[in-house]
């Protein structure tokens, strides 16, 4: 909440050595809490005293929202005490609600003393064993826990009193002494609820909050302020307590308040996800990518079975990483798990791409997690594997690899400018209208839609198949636009490339490769779509892969004549010379050798 100070009056000609009050307020408002500093694992936390004094209450509220770190169900390591092996017990959490456990340090901590570490009457602070280093003498655990609680005036009980008072802000002394009435309290809650409704809508739709010009004279002050204004004008109860009708220092529309509302929504969503997982087992899905500012980021998704028996996938966080080495990614995951109180002992699955830093057998992220938890089995996405296999096979065959190079050149040349794309759409539109008038095709819902050539990509599933489908259906239109480029292009390079591509498209080998790959990619595309369905399991996936392999084998043995008939019909329809399979044809690239068709 903003604070206002009465400035000290300075006579004319006098100078004041005190800092400017407005600068103090501005400096305090510039200090923001980094939520990455709020860590659930007590052994990795930064003490409250190390935060800026203006942020300490905010820090305490964040930790109160998350509660003490109590990883129930965690496999606690055993420590030798003579001939006995002892470890931390889950039952201690039920007896001592303040008790926390640090996975990183294998030690017990006090949640209340961490938040409100104070001196007792003798000038003694709460002991460091339960606030900094961690207690792990499990043989004398119960005895030391009771000693830590101590007498009525102990440090622990002082921290408990402050903890309970901090929780009950409404009935605290400071709140009672305020001169605020019940009506002001209700007005504040109404304004806060309206701002929160606007925040939830913008977050759900993925819209930006801020505007370029948020001044009162601006015609567009940004999504948050404009939607907040529109919402209040349609609700009389809200309109009476917001904007001009609200106190100048309590309108809940400042950029800092907007950030706080967004962070609060994110914290609540994350808390719901963590609570839904509970003590159940879960799997980890990770992928890394760069954002628009060229920063490496890691997206983390958790997959688990909820209480109703349904498989749930929830996006947990995006974590910035300095690099994409396996050690850096593992450290980032460790920090994220500690922040949200998740345990690696509950991890039962890993899902990454096929990069060496992810699935490496010795130093990959998969291997590092398996060293810590051997039950976290690694599974590479079957749809991703299928795409990698298709790309590798295509690049391994010279004819197919050359074919896709020409396809990429055709797509790039015909879509190099908006003018060429519009010309391609217009030529295709005129062709469809002619066919409709002649009765060769029929109209209907979802038919004869406006399309363009899709750009193929190795990492986009099904993109090659979609490109070949559209190229075969728009064959005449593509030939037409390439002819226009050959005649009208301003550079000789584009004219020569267009002519070469036309000659290549009129070649029987190119047409044969087009239909062959379209048929093969059609089989694999159906499998890829099925594998991407959320209700598939590994047994069904293996069965589907075996079925696809049988289809490919049947085509290899008996399907060539079908492809040849389709290619010949296509060539006759588009006036492309059909070769005789009995003729001898010189192999391209070697004039001394020849082959039969």
From TrEMBL:
Annotated segments matching region Disordered: 1-25
Name of this chain's protein: TTF-type domain-containing protein
Source organism superkingdom: Eukaryota
Compositionally biased residues, Polar residues: 13-25
Composition-biased stretches (Basic residues): 1-10
Pfam families in UniProt: DUF4371
Native source species: Coffea arabica
Domain TTF-type span(s) in chain numbering: 84-179
